[in-house]
Amino acid sequence: MSDENLIKSTCKELGLTYKQLGELIGYSEAAIKAAIAKNEISEPMRRAIELYKENLKLQQELADFRTLKAILSR
Fold it and tell me: Where are the domains of the chain?
């Protein structure tokens, strides 16, 4: 996946603006837009996006396990 597509697909997938994504991963909107314009994303930014997405997935799995636990403990 190209750098530009990683940012755009992440924003689209999560329903975020570039500004919101930047705030969530510790970058400014300008830094996000610059990465898209240059079609080049730094390794730390790429990793931040990947880790943020992984974190969301793990949070959802944890919520699912808690729901299952609550159902089973009835």
Answer: 6-73
pTM: 0.85
Q: Which residue has the tokens 């996000």?
A: 32
Contact 4, 36 (CB under 8 A): yes
For residues 32 and 12, what is the distance between their CA atoms, to the nearest angstrom?
14
pLDDT digits (tens, 9 = 90+) for 6-48: 999 999 999 999 999 999 999 999 999 999 999 999 999 999 9
What span, in angstroms and rounded, lies between the C-alpha atoms of 14 and 65? 22
Closest to 40 measured CA to CA, from 6, 3, 70: 3
The Cα-based distances of 69 to 9, 56, 60, 63, 74 in angstroms read: 33, 20, 14, 10, 9
